[in-house]
Design brief:
Shape: globular
Helix content: 40-55%
Structural class: alpha+beta
Strand content: 15-25%
Distance between the termini: 67 Å
Length: about 625
């Protein structure tokens, strides 16, 4: 019997690893094909691959579950078999190049089969069993994680030429000599007047990072104890030729590029942990889970986030509370003050004006997950059956959940350890931001004589309009554009985070408010004209948004076009014609000379926004 059980456990472990290896082979293959799509200007193919790749993981998990049930009747096996299967699996990961991802895959499959209702149990990897430290020692020499260059400090243009040549892009540069000179000068500027040390070198990640219509070369300059990041965005001009658009070189640049509000990169990685380690060396304050997310490895990001969350719970004592701000009609939001995320669950009941369902709302969140978020929509992590210690919840919050989302709440000692837990059936978790209405109110309270508050107000209003225009470029209509549905990040960016009313721009009908036909209609306090479900009247936005005269003046100076149906109709038509907008994850002022830039974009101002050059 013992021999048979060992054979069974070994078979389960091998089938599980086969399932993961198949997943990562397909994931990596799709990521590698991003290079060809970039070279052939296949922007719609890039968007389609981006959406489809997100589904790969769940499909492979289902396939693996089906195989384990069919071949091993896995769900009916005793726990001793699963304990042994996990030990065999750990042994099989020694020398594996993606062990941390394989452990997460094991967790996903196991919880599907064993129907575990939350994550802390003995049959999954709550903590990693295989270290990814020094994992590069075993990488194939023909495909290193990064390349090293050892230039002469007064000949940085030569290393710039080598870096661009080694990208091996099958597309000509519009003016390669110009780009080499620009990059060389920028690298010299990063180095400054520093004394050159013995270890002076440049390290560049081997794979380009592909997203939207750009390819990004990421590296760092090392000199003594200093490590200075740099990134070269490579774009197509109007004739389909390549050019380097900028040299990004600050930690803030990197954080913006790898923001939680942007779509996932396509990157061809043999050893993901090595890429993460490299990126953390240039973004030490960036959580590892967010880096894995940005690389398209969202399940690993979720796994790491949950480990970080458990660790934080163990070292903190504050309580979960109802999140500050105006309460939403659809989502109930709570947070832990010491933890930089918010937790959102869908209410059971909605007011009459919210004609929606739980499944429709979940569908909106899926849409955002699969869409190009262009830096203006917060990424969310979705969890089911999450257990929290009951003593960490304020009673007021418990009563709020009981009142508005009773179907999502269970309080019990489900694991039998003698402690009650709050179990939330389904929730979303996203980065905490300052709600824009609260941010603006703080500037109002400071008064018109506070110069810094006035600058903050102007930046927030301009950023709000830019955010909407970037969403338009991504074919997204926010639906509810009230200030409370947008947040301000630590870098001053305005990001949208309330998704229950979003629609595609191409599904909306943007209309002018009809002229009243008589005095009765003109004086009516009610809408007297016919309105279809997806009709939008942009000129009606003003009364809801621009009650404050100072805000109105700033908004009308920069974004008055948002109150005209013509703006929305024009961009809807361009999107319907197949146009794909450029979206720059860096300030327009950082770009090189105007000979590289396309025509004026949607935002029309200096700042991170969307530019609408003709599609090559």
């Amino acid at each position: 019997m013992a021999q048979r059980d060992s054979s069974l456990a070994r078979g389960i472990a091998k089938a599980m690893l086969d399932g993961f290896n198949r997943h990562y082979r397909l994931f990596r293959g799709e990521s590698a094909r991003a290079k060809h799509r970039f070279e052939t200007v296949d922007w719609h193919g890039q968007q389609r691959a981006q959406r489809e790749r997100i589904e790969f993981y769940d499909v492979r998990v289902r396939e693996c579950v089906q195989r384990l049930e069919k071949e091993f009747q896995a769900g009916g096996q005793p726990m001793e078999v699963w304990h042994e299967a996990k030990l065999f699996y750990i042994g099989m990961l020694v020398g594996h190049l993606q062990p941390e991802l394989a452990e997460t895959f094991f967790n996903s499959v196991t919880t599907k089969i064993l129907h575990r209702t939350y994550f802390q149990n003995d049959f999954i990897f709550v903590r990693p069993a295989i270290s990814t430290e020094y994992i590069q020692i075993g990488e194939p020499p023909e495909s290193p994680t990064f390349r090293c260059y050892y230039p002469q400090p007064d000949r940085l243009d030569e290393v710039a030429a080598a870096i661009l040549r080694d990208c091996q892009l099958q597309r000509p540069f519009a003016d390669l000599a110009r780009d080499i000179a620009r990059v060389g000068r920028a690298l010299a500027g990063i180095l400054g007047e520093a004394r050159i040390r013995a270890n002076f070198q440049l390290q560049v990640l081997a794979s380009l990072f592909y997203r939207n219509k750009g390819a990004y070369l990421v590296g760092k300059l090392i000199n003594g104890f200093d490590e200075m990041p740099f990134c070269l965005p490579i774009l197509h001009d109007g004739q389909g030729r390549l050019y380097v658009d900028a040299v990004l070189h600050t930690e803030r640049d990197m954080h913006t590029l790898f923001s939680f509000s942007r779509a996932y990169f396509m990157v061809d990685m043999e050893i993901p942990a090595a890429y993460v380690q490299f990126l953390r060396s240039i973004m030490p304050r960036k959580p590892r889970n967010e880096i894995y997310n940005s690389l398209g490895l969202a399940k690993q990001g979720k796994n790491l986030f949950y480990r970080d969350f458990l660790s934080h719970l163990g070292t903190s004592t504050d309580q979960f509370r109802i999140a500050p701000g105006i309460k939403g009609m659809v989502m109930l939001v709570f947070d832990l003050p010491s933890f930089p995320y918010v937790f959102k669950l869908i209410k059971d009941y909605y007011p009459p004006q919210k004609d929606t369902t739980r499944e429709q709302i979940k569908g909106k969140y899926r849409l955002v997950k699969q869409h190009d978020r262009v830096g203006r929509m917060a990424d969310t992590m979705e969890y089911s059956e999450v257990a929290f210690p009951r003593e960490r919840f304020e009673d007021e919050l418990i009563e709020e959940i009981r009142r508005f989302a009773p179907s999502q709440l269970e309080i019990s000692d489900r694991d039998g350890d003698g402690s009650e837990e709050v179990i939330i059936k389904h929730l979303y978790i996203e980065r905490r931001m300052i709600p824009l209405n609260i941010y603006l109110q703080e500037t109002f309270d400071a008064g018109p004589d506070d110069a810094q508050a006035c600058r903050q107000m102007e930046n927030a209003v301009i950023e709000y309009g830019n955010a909407i225009k970037d969403l338009v470029a991504a074919n997204i209509f926010p639906g509810d554009m009230l200030w409370k549905n947008f947040g301000v990040t630590r870098h001053g960016k305005v990001v949208f985070y309330d998704y229950d009313e979003i629609e595609y721009i191409t599904d909306c009908n943007f209309r002018q408010v009809p002229a009243p036909r008589n005095e009765e209609e003109e004086m009516s306090g009610e809408i007297w004209y016919a309105v279809a479900p997806r009709d939008v009247f942009p000129e009606t936005f003003g009364p809801f948004l621009l009650g404050n005269p100072r805000v109105r003046e700033i908004f009308m100076r920069h974004h008055a076009d948002l109150l005209t149906p013509q703006f929305w109709q024009q961009h809807k038509e361009r999107i319907q014609q197949g146009h794909v907008y450029d979206v720059f994850p860096y300030d327009q002022a950082r770009r090189f000379g105007q000979e590289s830039a396309g025509p004026a974009g949607i935002t029309g101002i200096t700042g991170t926004g969307a530019a609408g050059g003709p599609q090559p």
